[in-house]
Amino acid sequence: MSISGQVGRLSLIDMNMKDLTSRNGLKKIHANFDDIYRKMENEYERNADDIRIRAGIVSIWTKMCIDALLRNKVFSKGRSLSVQHKTI
Question: I need a labelling partner for 15 at 20 to 30 A (CA). Which of 29, 37, 43, 83 fits?
Fold first, then answer.
């Protein structure tokens, strides 16, 4: 499993999110979307220097977008991701 996959999985556990591929998991995300999104947004901003954490969160947003209703909710929040690359 990739690092972003591991981070994404940890983030799902930390935010009490269920599996994004199950109907029951999607229902819970729909029901608690604002709270879940806020937590993800906060983690994304808090970890500005850790590309692995940010990649994991983007991965979760991507998985959420598989569901059309969740995709619309994500895009309605107006999150404009700016990807910043650091030169090593």
Answer: 83
